[in-house]
Specification:
The protein is mainly alpha-helical. It has two domains: 6-56; 87-142. Helices cover 68% and strands 8% of the residues. It contains four helices and three strands, in the order E-H-H-E-E-H-H. The chain has helices at residues 9-16, 20-28, 50-56, 72-151; strands at residues 6-8, 38-41, 44-48. It has a three-stranded antiparallel sheet. Helix 1 packs across helix 2. The N and C termini lie far apart (120 Å). It comes from uncultured prokaryote. Pfam families: HTH_3. Residues 66-90 are annotated as: Disordered. Residues 2-40 form the HTH cro/C1-type domain.
């Protein structure tokens, strides 16, 4: 890491994982440790990249320099392929699990719907029987009254 490397406030905020506004608020505050890392370059405020590690605790990676070895590129590509394949398998497994769970939920819903239909039918039958019993009672009461009225 170079101590003389400066980046824009926007880039700094992005790397630090905070908003640009929060960086400006800190810069405008008094006795802020971030102020010692600021520099004006072409009328633009720039921050030293070392402030990321020293203030935010974010490790700044070294710029990647190309290696002239012919074996490193295929090796890193195969590692990437393996990682991609592993991720792909994991995603496939997850999709399979979720599909099974969805199928089980659909079966549960169908079963519960069937039970609900049965319950509604039973309720309707019992309501009809209650109505029929009430009608029979009223008919019997009417007949009893007629019998007593006959003797009067």
């Amino acid at each position: 890491m170079r101590e003389d490397e400066y980046i824009s406030i926007k880039d700094f905020a992005k790397r630090a994982g905070v908003s640009v506004q929060s960086i400006y608020k800190r810069l405008n505050g008094l006795n802020n440790p971030l102020n010692q890392y600021i520099k004006l370059v072409e009328n633009q405020k720039m921050l030293n990249i070392s402030a990321l590690e020293e203030i935010y605790g974010i490790e700044v990676e070294q710029p990647i320099q190309p290696i002239h070895s012919t074996h490193s590129t295929p090796h890193s590509t195969s590692e990437k392929d393996k990682k991609t394949e592993t991720k792909s398998e994991t995603v496939s497994d997850l999709v399979s699990i979720l599909e099974k769970e969805l199928g089980a939920k659909n079966e549960q819903i169908a079963h519960l719907q069937k039970l609900l239909d049965q319950e509604q039918q039973l309720r309707m039958i019992s309501e009809q029987k209650l109505l029929q019993i009430e009608e029979n009672k009223t008919v019997e009461e009417g007949q009893k009254k007629k019998k007593w009225q006959f003797w009067k």
